[in-house]
Design a protein that fits this description.
With about 200 residues, the protein is α+β, with helices and mostly antiparallel strands. About 40% of the residues lie in helices and about 30% in strands. A hairpin with a 6-residue loop joins strand 5 and strand 6 (about 95-105).
Length: about 200
């Protein structure tokens, strides 16, 4: 996923890119929902999320991609851009996350850039254990979410479920729910197959 050429002038940044079939402007609009973007990250276990002003949010969470997990208690300042959005953090090792949307063949390209350059190099080196390791998986899950969104967003019950049920869930709860749904589907198929066999033999 990573590009060879750096999409930023920062000397200490991580980035990842992926393609989407969605139109560029629709993706830019999608990225304005910061709560949804962060909750798609499968390694963030939310404890609190609240608005604290215009384009300002308070986030408390645990980043499970680190070992041991890193506790996050941060204020996010959001700056809408003509080609995406930039989220700045008031504290911590990471200074900002930028979502950049560009036109690409058969759709768009999304680049997520995480900048660590705000602190001096000695402090960054001493806090390497805080580097967010969820970036690649986060990008993969956003890409999958966008594929489902493009396919199912027209269906109102699906939109309601994703916003009201799926989005507030913790990552572990989503995985358990997913497994239970598949188990239930298999049970329905097995029961249906049993009924069909019964009617074929005894009907």
């Amino acid at each position: 996923m990573n590009e060879v050429a750096a999409p930023t002038d920062s000397k200490d940044a991580a980035w990842v890119s992926f393609k989407s079939a969605m139109e560029t402007q629709l993706l830019i609009d999608f990225c304005q929902d910061i709560n949804r973007l962060f909750r798609i990250n499968p390694y963030l276990e939310f404890e609190n999320w609240q608005r604290c002003g215009d384009n300002c949010y308070q986030l408390s969470a645990r980043n499970l991609s680190n070992d041991p997990p890193v506790n996050i208690n941060n204020t996010l300042q959001v700056m809408p851009l003509h080609d995406g959005v930039k989220i700045s953090y008031n504290e911590g090792l990471k200074s900002s996350t930028t979502f950049k949307i560009e036109v690409a063949d058969e759709g768009s390209k999304v680049t997520i850039i995480e900048d660590y350059e705000a602190l001096d190099e000695d402090e960054r080196q001493s806090r390497l254990h805080e580097v967010d390791k969820s970036l690649t998986k986060w990008a993969e899950d956003i890409q999958m979410y966008l594929q489902r969104w493009k396919r199912w967003s027209w269906f109102a019950p699906w939109r309601w479920y994703m916003k009201k049920v799926w989005q507030p869930m913790k990552p572990a709860a989503r995985r358990i729910t997913y497994m239970l749904l598949w188990i239930s589907l298999v049970e329905v198929v097995v029961i249906g197959l049993g009924v069909a066999i019964y009617f074929v033999e005894y009907g």
